[in-house]
Design goal:
The chain is an all-alpha fold and 82 residues long. The chain has one domain. It contains 3 helices and no strands. Helix 1 packs across helix 2. It starts with 10 loop residues before the first helix and ends with a helix.
């Protein structure tokens, strides 16, 4: 596991997180770990949804499920655009 040290946070930010951690019965470290993990997970889910949306749009435009041939067509179209 990686370790991170964050410097020069305003005291009120640290205090706010300490209070939130205390309310949930966790340590400040665990509270911050949860926030960072959830944030990264949300970004990952957002990117996956964007990829699904793009794939669905391509399938509609190409008239069916993407196959290796469709991938070749997409590559050709991309190359034509530069």
């Amino acid at each position: 596991m990686a370790e991170v040290k964050v410097r020069e946070l305003p005291e009120w930010v640290v205090e706010a997180h300490k209070q939130q951690a205390q309310r949930t019965g966790t340590s400040l470290e665990q509270h911050l770990r949860t926030i960072l993990t959830e944030s990264a997970g949300a970004q990952k889910r957002s990117l996956l949804q964007l990829a699904r949306t793009c794939r669905e749009q391509l399938e509609r435009e190409l008239g069916g499920a993407l196959t290796d041939r469709n991938a070749d067509l997409v590559r050709e179209m991309r190359n034509e655009r530069g």
